[in-house]
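Hi, can you check this record?
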Amino acid sequence: MSTTPVPVHASTVAGVPVEAVQRYVLDDTEVRTVHARNLGRDYQVFVSLPPDYAAHPDRTYPVMFVTDANYAFPLIRSIARRLGDHGDGTEDFILVGLSYAVGDTPVYSRRRDYTPTNHGPSGLTSDMPGRPVLHGEAEGYRAFIKDDVFPLIAANYHADMSRRIYVGHSYGGLLGYEMLLHDPSMFSHYILGSPSLQFDHGVEFARMHEALAARKDLPANVLVVLGAFETPGKDKADRRYNRETDMIGDNRRFVAELQAKHYPGLHASVITVPGEDHLTVFPVIITRGIQWALPGKRPAFTATGG
């Protein structure tokens, strides 16, 4: 990966001038500020284009959208280029990173935008002085993605918008369930890492029952990935196990209830990754997810329960 020099400022060491420091800039990337009309806020959107994008102006590419972009965007971009191998390993795609509201901290923005109700965990303090902790604006944020981000990508890039892939982890995984239940065709593939089904005492189960009461189909491909430590373990001395929350059990039950509906268009799997916990599993989620959703010419990864 090369760099694009961006001068910052000159400095001195022991009074001797030092060459101006340069920022490290990812090639073939852009940052756009997008106004969420229904929320009245601005968000940054990061875009990474495939290496051969400029050489193939008539080609369209599938588009992967990922939340928590400040962390996830450069990671996915790097993993994708490592796996892709010019299309032999995995298919090239446009990557769209959904960053946080301008002026908000990541914690404040994601708590509010990725959760379905305003009944968040008790005892939380705001990391933005003078502003209360907020939850429960997932529906508005879903509309922002669909009504403001999708048209931007469709109008400005060689995007195959019939092949939209969603990636979210933790609260981002919970947001993915929300979109799957209430607007499943927003994405063709959902890669959901460690969805936080414990939020608001498991309210997403009740929301699922309500949303699916009259639904005849749920057309989507869903891969849920968790670390094997995301459950209470028998070895209490191993701090990598969850203390109380059984995220593995919750997500297996959630997907099993979806599968029990026998929707013809739904294809869903849950896998666990040995040796990983809630914080370490994300890179594996990305590797498995890209191989699953965008296989290349070589044999692809297939999701099987674990």
In short: The CA atoms of residues 271 and 304 lie 6 Å apart. The two ends are 35 Å apart (CA to CA). The domain at 27-293 is CATH 3.40.50.1820 (Rossmann fold). Strands lie at 11-13, 16-18, 29-36, 41-48, 61-66, 94-101, 159-169, 189-193, 220-227, 266-273.
